[in-house]
Design a protein that fits this description.
Blueprint: E1 16-20, E2 27-28, E3 31-32, H1 36-50, E4 54-58, H2 76-86, E5 91-92, H3 101-106, E6 113-115, H4 130-137, E7 142-145, H5 156-160, E8 167-169, H6 171-185, E9 191-195, H7 200-211, E10 216-219, H8 224-230, H9 245-257, E11 261-263, E12 267-271, E13 280-284, E14 293-297, H10 299-311, E15 314-318, H11 331-341, E16 347-350, H12 354-361, E17 370-371, H13 375-382, H14 388-391
Parallel strand pairs: 1-4, 1-7, 4-6, 5-6, 7-8, 9-10, 9-15, 10-11, 15-16, 16-17
Antiparallel strand pairs: 2-3, 12-13, 12-14
Length: about 400
């Protein structure tokens, strides 16, 4: 992927800078309950303010209807938390482009920061509406995109406005693109990739791409059961995609033909129902009872996977090994998280999504080399897709 222009090459002193960030964070009782994404944007925000920009931040939060203000999705709590983290006031503008937003932006002094209300309160954001792009661009002299988590979306704030202003990549977006691109282009070997999650259909392009570049591919989570079917095993009432079995057979053959080792679970934790207090057993992967479902990898699988991870010089992990949100089925994901964390010799990259939630739950995030903030965007980049929000900056 060709280089994007960094904010370090931009002339921003005294300029109005419109910066797309990813503040799509969880809220609880009117407060931010996880500020990871806000903290990830701080280096770019602090740099722009330090250079004397009049900074206008914009983001979406959640999935509002797009028909106007919805209190549950307001960015006001985010403005409050950002002000605490920056140690300076953040002016919350309460609108996106309407009302006196333009006048309030014009009144900003060098080194001051404001936050627009949720972009998705206006349906024109997701439509990449030309008029909305013009309204956003009219607020500023320079555009910066630091929202890697939305770089795979061709929305007004990620692509449309970039065509109308001098445009640059923030530090976080640039780091994400560089780290993931270099991992694929020139990984230190052995390169072990770990994929989990529920469906093969969601990850098949990622699997194909990783077989082209990794040495070992570990497959856990719900999607492993479709691969176990492909090996001729019965999987009981486990999650499975019958229509993808033949594709999994072909995938296993292709991996073998190019010398890539695919590791599947050799034992699984099964339950009589999908519940925290279900009756559970640990069984061999080829002996899953007809009336039970697999909800985690077993201890032998955890040991097998951990051994491969420990020997790796590059590790990429996306997706849990089981239903780690439930204590009864967290052991497999915890074992993988620990194995990745304690590989101090390797480059360890967490590919966004539930894997980030897992490393945070098990308190090992600080031991990872790099944690991606964008699950969907990182997956599309890994599978070789052009990201509209990145292409717009090139």
């Amino acid at each position: 992927m060709s280089q994007v222009k960094s904010i370090t090459s931009a002339d921003i002193a005294g300029k109005k800078v419109l910066c797309r960030v990813d503040f799509n964070v969880p809220l609880a009782e009117g407060k931010v309950s996880d500020d990871t994404r806000i903290k990830a944007a701080l280096p770019t925000i602090e740099y722009l303010l330090g250079q004397g920009a009049k900074l206008v931040l914009m983001s979406h939060l959640g999935r509002p209807a797009g028909t106007g203000f919805e209190a549950a999705f307001s960015l006001l709590p985010v403005a409050d938390r950002l002000a605490e983290l920056l140690g300076k006031p953040v002016q919350f503008l309460g609108e996106v482009t309407r009302g006196d937003v333009g006048a309030q932006v014009d009144a900003l002094k060098n080194g001051e920061v404001a936050l627009l209300e949720n972009l998705r309160f206006d349906s024109r954001e997701k439509e990449n509406d030309g008029g909305f792009c013009q309204e956003l661009a009219a607020l500023a002299d320079v555009y910066v995109n630091d929202a890697f988590g939305t770089a795979h979306r061709a929305h007004a704030s990620t692509t449309g406005v970039a065509a109308l202003l001098p445009s640059y990549a923030g530090f976080l977006l640039a780091k994400e693109v560089t780290t993931l691109s270099e991992m694929l282009a020139a990984p230190r070997r052995p390169f072990v990739a770990i994929l989990g999650g529920s469906k093969v259909s969601d990850k098949i392009k990622v699997i194909d791409a990783l077989i082209d570049t990794c040495d070992t591919l570990i497959i856990g989570g719900g999607m492993c059961f479709t691969f176990l079917l492909a090996q001729g095993f019965e999987v009981g009432s486990s999650l499975k995609e019958e229509e993808w079995v033949e594709r999994c057979v072909a995938t296993l053959k292709r991996a073998e033909s190019v010398g890539v080792k695919i590791l599947l679970p050799v034992d699984v934790v099964v339950a009589d129902r999908f519940a925290e207090d279900a009756s559970t057993l640990t069984v061999s992967a080829d002996k899953i009872p007809a009336n039970m479902m697999g909800l985690d990898i077993g201890p032998e699988s955890a040991a097998l996977f951990s051994g491969a991870i420990g020997d790796a010089k590059t590790v990429f992990w996306n997706g849990p090994m089981g239903v780690f949100e439930m204590k009864a089925f967290e052991a497999g994901t915890r074992a993988v998280a620990d194995a990745v964390a304690y590989n101090s010799e390797g480059d360890t990259i967490i590919g966004g999504g539930d894997s980030v939630a897992a490393v945070n739950k098990f308190n090992v995030g600080d031991k990872m080399t790099f944690i991606s903030t964008g699950g969907g965007a990182s997956m599309e980049l890994v599978q070789g897709e052009a990201l509209p929000g990145v292409v717009a900056l090139q």
